[in-house]
Amino acid sequence: MAKGPSHRFLAKTCRSLAAVFGALWMAASPAGAADDAPATVPLIKLEYPGNPPNIRMLYIRLLALGDRRVDQPLLFDTGSAGMTVECSVVLPANLCSESGIAIKKTLELDGITVTTEKAVLNYGTYDEYGNIAMARVTIGAREQPIATAAAIPLLVRYKKVRRATGEVVGGPLWPKGTFGVSPVGGAGPERTLTSPLMAIRPENGLRRGYYLSPIGTDWKICTNEEGNCPEVAALHIGISESVRSGFKTSKWQRADAHYNFPTIDACIAWGDESVCRPTLYDTGNSTIMVAGKPRKKTETSLGVGVDVAVTAPNHDAWKFKTTYQPEVELVPQLPYQIVGIRYFEANSLLFDLDAAEIGFRIGN
Known about the structure:
Elements: H1 5-21, E1 39-47, E2 56-65, E3 68-77, E4 81-86, H2 87-90, E5 96-97, E6 100-101, E7 107-109, E8 112-122, E9 126-135, E10 137-141, E11 144-147, E12 152-162, E13 168-169, E14 177-181, E15 207-212, E16 231-239, H3 241-244, E17 248-251, E18 264-270, E19 273-281, E20 288-290, E21 307-311, E22 318-321, E23 328-330, E24 337-339, H4 341-346, E25 348-352, E26 357-361
């Protein structure tokens, strides 16, 4: 990739950000909260209409980029690092097309800097194409916004391409962007796109980090466009010692240098079968994916009513019964396993950034 003026701008800016992030942060606790209370951010629960059924995701509300009000839900994803926003959400329509963002030099407007530096971000089945930008990010509830202390790198996306076919995909049900909160790895040029939550630090002496409390088992078929999806107070920024003591923690791993997400060695078992692999806990995946080869060659998923257990060293076992098919998929070509949204319905997940640890709490 050619390193033109915009790349030098980006590299310089990112170095500056890296230098100040250790000391410059946004105070994020709610006004009037107890000294050890975290900042709580609502997440949107969405079950997509149509087929296939049971596609369930979490979204976070992006309120603003720089000085530009956005108020756009983005997919909340613990399985990726970095933030993307669709071009049409933040830029004039005449600058956005599937052929690219129509700028020939760095564009600055409303506190957003969009460079000519292009990047491609890789996701499960598709890739996102866009330009690197810099902006201060504001998220959360409209009445209690939380912002990064400084501008951070993100991707302004102009197209999504299905990797297997090269087809450009989109439509109203596709997320208008991704809010990747994985504390591991990065994306884009020189891996400069990292979790926006890394740029928010709580006050009151709380540990750097965040955790998800149970989101509940009730789901509603809805869309962000209609604005009829329920919210749940599930994301908490800042970790007190009392909260941390309620989790069983381990150092997170990175199973491969190319992965922008943390894993932990875990086993998924049902009947007399068990598959143990590095495992990702992923809010961006609506199913559980087992990496082992099924005994029956024609079997691609577990049926309804199957007892499943997910275990990891030093952690309590999570046990559940499948309620639909395919809730647990058998994907032997995967080099790692994925525990999707079902885990987050009744359990909690913690990321302690100071200790580089991931924590699990089974049940409330």
